[in-house]
Specification:
single chain; alpha+beta; flat
Length: about 100
């Protein structure tokens, strides 16, 4: 089954301060992104100097996952998330 792509307006907000380094994308019209879907924000790279916050209006290309890809993402998503976690049960003292 072919993947379906479409373009939509979006708002990009990038924060680069000593407290936080964040990037948020909000798609227009309340479009939701599901498991396996891809969002590509179009345009030149966004460079935000330290200490500043930038909000831009851009377009994004949303590619919807097919049924099989969506199911696979749901089944394996929890396992891949655990790879991102770092757990430590030590006090940090040298033994």
């Amino acid at each position: 089954m072919p993947r379906r792509s479409f373009e939509v307006a979006c708002t990009v907000r990038v924060i680069n301060t000593s407290e936080s380094l964040e990037a948020h994308v909000e798609l227009a019209d309340g479009i939701a992104v599901g498991p396996g879907d891809e969002v590509h924000v179009n345009g030149a790279a966004i460079v935000v100097p330290f200490g500043e916050t930038v909000t831009l209006e851009r377009t994004a290309t949303v590619t919807r996952a097919g049924a099989v890809e969506r199911l696979w993402t749901r089944l394996t998503g929890d396992l891949e998330f655990m790879e991102l976690c770092e757990f430590s049960f030590s006090s940090g003292r040298k033994l």
